[in-house]
């Protein structure tokens, strides 16, 4: 007996009502949600009350989507950090009494102070729900089991994916508190259907398995589900992981303080905006929405962060948004290629925009390289310049490093049209990561990085 | 079942759940009704019936609780029980 009725289990969409809704209807629905959210935030979050008052905005003045776009200010992470600093840990950003806390998360604080993230019971269910659109579309059902090789710490990481498996009714298998070798042994022992990891760690587990003499292609795993960093929509990385595991690769793009904003498309190659629980804009440097089909900064409003509302939140992620059908049948906005990079990682070499994920894709065209690389960006008098550090595979002879480097330089030059230096290093030289890999090293002065107009508060009334 | 019929049933279910939550003196039952209220809200939200952001803090019951505890709250200006002015699609429209 199955948990769902057969006719329901055969449905291609988790929520066909909204996932197939016409764009104009979806936009009208968003407006109603935004109006309620702004009203809620204004009355419950001192940070939002002060921000909206400062911009002369009252909730009842947001009557159209144009009002929302033009009158409601952007919010940046540093605004939330400042509000939290007023009375740590949550300060003026908090919108709920303590009784409604379910779980607390925090960011690593690698760029300064950690951002604290309060989650209510309802938010935790909705975090899980946001994964469900992906799980359902790719065929995960309650009879499937999911392996989580991560440490279940204070970082949001794969907690929301776990909440999704609970919502599905699937089986959770924890790989917490173990090293990578023990996790490989658990995968052999418990035979999960799906494994969750960052792209970097999915590849690293392959290296460890190889050292142990384990062939992951013969494992039970049919799905590798990645999140936490770009890669899931980068064809070369996707192919490398799929070949390593002999499994299908899917991704979800999310942001710790917002939650799982964009479940991957079942046709791979991109992600959708989870429009039941999020609204998004994609804007240029002056803060104006770019037309569909173009690239800009992803600005997200979450309907489910009840504890700490975030409205028009700057993600600093670069995406290309599209309202064209991607082929999977949903009408939800599509972001081909997923996250293309960070706004502060935007590189312009001799007038050409160079996206880090584009370089990652091109590196896969060269044989003899591992999946590990680093981008180092500097600035001379007039231009950004890039050096790519790559790592040779163990079977690549050290004598061949110079030839391999030249080959990669040529691939990059032909595809992008500008020269990018390549340094080939010995296997195992570049660091490995369990969660997010650090691949981008920016040595440019701050004034040569992306700056959104009125950064921090955006445009007011 | 049409969307409107589904929403009407959900609204009635949520009304009864809230009534029981307020009436009971059993902690486990109050918590269960609280969570049921949340799931009713979630089901309505996903069918485009937008009444509140978080039912625990925006319902009439929540306003009464806040007042009893001497806390500030803001009153709901729309009825929580009746479906909102969502678009008139039916279940049949969205059958996959």
CATH C-level of the largest domain in chain A = Alpha Beta
CATH topology term of the largest domain in chain A: Rossmann fold
The helix/strand class of chain B is mainly alpha
Return the domain count of chain A. 2
What percent of residues of chain A adopt helix (DSSP H or I)? 25-40%
Average pLDDT number of chain B:
79
Shape of chain B: globular
Q: What's the quick description here?
A:
With 461 residues, chain A is of the alpha/beta class.
In words, what does this structure look like?
The complex is a heterodimer of chains A (461) and B (96). Chain A has a 6-stranded mixed sheet. A 4-stranded antiparallel sheet of chain A has the order 10-11-12-14, with no helix packed on it. Chain A has helices at residues 6-9, 16-19, 23-44, 46-54, 65-71, 77-85, 121-138, 159-168, 180-190, 199-212, 235-245, 356-363, 401-416; strands spanning 101-106, 116-120, 145-148, 171-174, 194-197, 223-226, 248-255, 259-263, 270-272, 278-283, 295-302, 313-320, 334-336, 341-342, 347-349, 352-354, 369-379, 384-392, 421-425, 440-442. With 461 residues, chain A is an alpha/beta fold. Chain A folds into 2 domains: 1-339, ANL, N-terminal domain (Rossmann fold, 3-Layer(aba) Sandwich); 347-448, GMP Synthetase, Chain A, domain 3. With 96 residues, chain B is mainly α. Chain B has helices spanning 3-23, 27-46, 55-58, 60-68. In chain B, helix 1 packs antiparallel against helix 2 (27-46). Chain B is globular, with a radius of gyration of 15 Å. The two termini of chain B are 15 Å apart.
Per-chain topology:
The complex is a heterodimer of chains A (461) and B (96).
Chain A: H1 6-9, H2 16-19, H3 23-44, H4 46-54, H5 65-71, H6 77-85, E1 101-106, E2 116-120, H7 121-138, E3 145-148, H8 159-168, E4 171-174, H9 180-190, E5 194-197, H10 199-212, E6 223-226, H11 235-245, E7 248-255, E8 259-263, E9 270-272, E10 278-283, E11 295-302, E12 313-320, E13 334-336, E14 341-342, E15 347-349, E16 352-354, H12 356-363, E17 369-379, E18 384-392, H13 401-416, E19 421-425, E20 440-442
Parallel strand pairs in A: 3-4, 3-5, 5-6, 6-7, 17-20, 18-19
Antiparallel strand pairs in A: 1-2, 7-8, 9-13, 10-11, 11-12, 12-14, 15-16, 17-18
Helix pairs in contact in A: 3-4, 7-8, 10-11
Chain B: H1 3-23, H2 27-46, H3 55-58, H4 60-68
